[in-house]
Amino acid sequence: MIMKLGGKAAELARNDRSTALVSKIAGAEVRQNDFADVREIAVDEIRPDPNQARKLQVSVAVLQNPEAATEPELRRKIDAILGMAESFKTAGQRQPIEVYAEGAHFVLVAGERRWWAAKVAAMLTIWAKVLPEKPSRLRLIQYVENAHREGLSTKESMQAIFEVMQESAALGEQVSSFTQLKNVTGLPKTSASRWWSIISGPEEVRVAIRDEVITGLVAAEELSKIPDVAERAKLLAEFAIAEREGGAKVILDARARRAAHATSTKAKRSRGRPKKYPLAPRPTSMLLGSYLSGCWGGCPATSILMMHGFSLRKSRKQ
Amino acid sequence: MTEPTDLKVLVVAQQKGGVGKTTISKMLAVFGSRDDLVNKRVLLIDLDYQASLSKLVLQMDYSPEKGTLPPVHPEYVEADDPDWNGRSSSADIFFDGNCVPYPVTFPYPVERLMILPAYKSKLQEVEEQDRTRLREKVHNRLLEFLSLEEVRQSFDLIIVDTGPKESPLVRTALRAATHLIVPLTLETQCIDGLVEMLELWQMERRTRPTTRQLTLAGLVINRYDARYSIHQAYLSQLSGDPMISPLLASTVLPQRASVAERDSRAAVPGTLFDLPKSQDIREKAIELCADIFGKIFPNEAASFKKLQPDRKYISIVERQLLEHSGAAEIPVEESKS
């Protein structure tokens, strides 16, 4: 209960905003920092997450004999890990990995490549953020981590996004629109829009991505947008041939894009700034313009101004 | 690095000076260590280079170049320890880490109470590091020191007294703390200081893992004078606020001359607990200490509430007075009650 007090001093105290500030700070919610527990743990006690969307497909044997790897993608991954191991030897580990405790060992949340690099560098311990339990949004953390560090392939991305959506749905947050997808995954607007076209589009495009017939996100999006089934099937078949024979995909990507544009409606294609917009160079002319355009049934303000003897450039100068 | 789990670290901090940090630290240390009271093994650490707490409980030395410095340790034997000059201070935590706590002398020796006193010039040196070195060598250093097995085995409670202003030493103390006390007086500047202190507390809390929390054991209102309407107004504002009132210590310490007198080594009796029962500050001090210790050791909170000091601790000055007057017994007023 706040006492009623008189006097000048009481008035001073009442007008003092410090107590309000104290109250605000005292009541501020403190997000406990689950990640603050960074410590060194044994490399041998860590297990990779078997359900992680990105498959590194490396092993100790492969890393010990990098020359044996012929596939360019795998070779690139191996080289990156070996390079990181070298940097660990010279500069040490700069970024801790992230794990959660499960039974007697730790399961990787993020940092699988760093973990392999630590093994190559023969490190016994590794710096890790140790989470007290399995995070509820594990798939999202992994997806964000992978999307921002080592690029995921389109196939891996699709799988990861579906898993993030499932995880989100399990937590009571259904993803049923482009905006929700963007919010849940944190994807930039353009990518989210592309993925939403694929997710909500025809099944065969998703199958093609899964089978790695289509490897480009843009091409997949454009294919999903082609409303004509026959046209889509034809292009998909061409993609499949290109996949088998290797190459010529770039041309196909462009063709898919053209096809999508040709078959989509005209209204959908119109992009950029709307043609009709009120002109507002100066308050008076804006008033005049908006007033007149109202009277003249939505005629562009520019034309009205010109009818009245103003030119656009002139009014801006003034 | 293992972190102290059983060892409690209580930090007394407030950026505004003169609010009673040192007085409250000493009061809590005596209450916590006396065998008729809480009876824990307590180590005081003075991180204020003004060394006001150290001067209160030890006979400190002074040199014109180095300012106040700790005396030669009573157990120091030069022949046994040729590498050590016999002085030890809280600043050693930040240097070689070889610290030898001193038994407290004033107002009376308490068996389970030790202090690491301040060493003015060395503590200043600790603060005058560049940012990188501060982060690496200072901010976590006290926590590391208090995590040492030897320290954890030797004490149950560490009480850290800090200096005014937001200094790296306050940060290092907060980093190591398990509990925090913020004394305040009901004046505008002090409530301003409280804003920043609480910001610091929240900031520290945000960096903590869930397993190692920092508890605010209380905002202790000190030197309350009911005759001042501004005190009344602030008190009603603070205790009427739903966010602040849970943080306030249950007892408000009133403004009393006997508190200031206890800051003199010649004071008789030596602590507030030894005052006659007729003085209300005695009861308030006991209540406040029991409340705070209850928050630090929640399992024993109920037993702390029943504690009553007996009058067997007699300050050195008082003993001399008694011996001089030839009286064999303790003062008359206490035995009457």
Summarize the structure.
In chain A, 56% of the residues lie in helices and 8% in strands.
Written overview of the protein:
The complex is a heterodimer of chains A (318) and B (337). Among the domains of chain A are: 34-135, Alpha-Beta Complex (Conserved hypothetical protein from pyrococcus furiosus pfu- 392566-001, ParB domain); 291-317, no CATH class. Chain A has 17 helices and five strands. Chain A has helices at residues 8-15, 18-27, 60-64, 72-91, 112-120, 138-148, 154-170, 178-185, 189-200, 203-210, 217-225, 229-245, 249-263, 266-269, 283-295, 301-307, 312-317; strands at 38-42, 46-47, 97-102, 105-110, 125-131. In chain A, helix 6 (138-148) packs antiparallel against helix 7 (154-170), helix 9 (189-200) crosses helix 11 (217-225) and helix 15 packs across helix 16 (301-307). Chain A is flat. Chain B is α/β, with parallel strands linked by helices. Chain B has one domain (8-309): P-loop containing nucleotide triphosphate hydrolases (Rossmann fold). Chain B has helices at 21-33, 52-57, 120-127, 131-138, 141-146, 149-154, 168-176, 188-207, 229-240, 257-261, 280-296, 301-305, 316-325, 332-336; strands at residues 8-12, 42-46, 61-63, 67-69, 102-103, 113-116, 157-161, 179-184, 215-221. In chain B, helix 8 (188-207) links the parallel strand 8 and strand 9 (215-221).
What are the defining features of this structure?
heterodimer, A: 318 residues, alpha/beta, Conserved hypothetical protein from pyrococcus furiosus pfu- 392566-001, ParB domain, five-stranded mixed beta sheet, 5 strands, flat, disordered C terminus, B: 337 residues, Rossmann fold, seven-stranded mixed beta sheet, two-stranded antiparallel sheet, 9 strands, 12% strand, globular
